[in-house]
Amino acid sequence: MTQQELKVLLIEDNPGDAFLIKFYLGESTSPVFHVSHSEDVKGGLDLLSKGNFDIILSDMNLPDSFGVETIKSILTKYPGNLVIVLTGLTDEEVGLETVRYGAQDFLVKGKFDGKVLISSIMFSFERFKLNKQIDRVSKQLDEENSRIDSIQKLLNAGYIEFDIQNNSVFRSDFLLKMIGMDESMKDAKLDEGFQAIINSDELKAKMQEAITVGKVGTHNFKRKDGREYRLTFECKNGKMLGVIQPL
Fold first, then answer.
1. Measured distance CA(174)–CA(156) in Å, rounded
2. From the CB of residue 8, how many other CB atoms can be counted at a distance below 10 Å?
3. Comparing C-alpha atoms, which of 170, 202, 164 is closest to residue 186?
4. I want to staple 162 with a disulfide (CB 3.0 to 4.6 A). Which of 24, 43, 72, 240 is the partner?
5. pTM
6. pLDDT greater than 80 at residue 194
7. CATH fold of 5-136, please?
């Protein structure tokens, strides 16, 4: 198994605190920490300009920065970094405030030993990685949904999904706009929305039959307001996936 190695930027002007933290991190063999040290924000930003770090440990009160402004100055210039704030015994409330500004966590000096320090760092590191993955997947889903919306607009066809077993129906945003339905009907019960369709019982019976035998096909239907549509569908895994287009 490859040994995990993490690069840490320590921004701390107190020699005693800096020595203790470097000592604690130096004792760790899994992971191995490689620590770079600066005594002020300016030096820390300079190190960040030269390379990436997995973790930033920063005191709040430094010769060139004070309080919440310290975390803001770091994350404004280098957003997307994992920052853990080091606070004094009287600064716990300010430490909480820094979390609201983007820090992952804060540690109170004098209240942690090597084991607690490393456990806190690794917990924050794993949580930070997970949040990054969630953000990445969320962005990919947003991009995919945007492409699907564009395709629906080009084809003037709205996506719909029926699940008879779970008595549910999903309608895309474009479909809701196209047929003039409220957003509350996006995820709804199967019967909801069929009231506006002429001979809705016939449509539901055909859907049930199609899903049961796994059909692919089309079905035209008419709404009570006179508008006509075509449902093109494919049935698989107990569901009907389809697109609806106006006629």
1. 9
2. 20
3. 170
4. 240
5. 0.63
6. no
7. Rossmann fold (3.40.50)
Question: What is the 3 state secondary structure string of 171-188?
Answer: ECHHHHHHHCCCHHHCEE
Q: What number is the average pLDDT over the span 93-106?
A: 82
Are the C-beta atoms of 238 and 165 separated by less than 8 Å? yes
Phi-psi region of 167 (alpha: psi -120 to 50; beta: other; left: phi over 0): left
| Sequence ranges of the domains in the chain | 5-136, 156-246
Residue type, 110: G
Q: How sure is the predictor about 1, in pLDDT bands with cuts at 50, 70 and 90?
A: very low
pLDDT mean over 169-188:
86
Question: What's the pLDDT tens digit per position in 127-178?
Answer: 999 888 888 888 888 888 788 888 888 888 888 888 877 888 888 889 888 8
Query: Backbone phi, then psi, for 130, in 5-degree steps?
Result: -65, -45
**CA dist., res. 173 & res. 117, Å (int):** 48
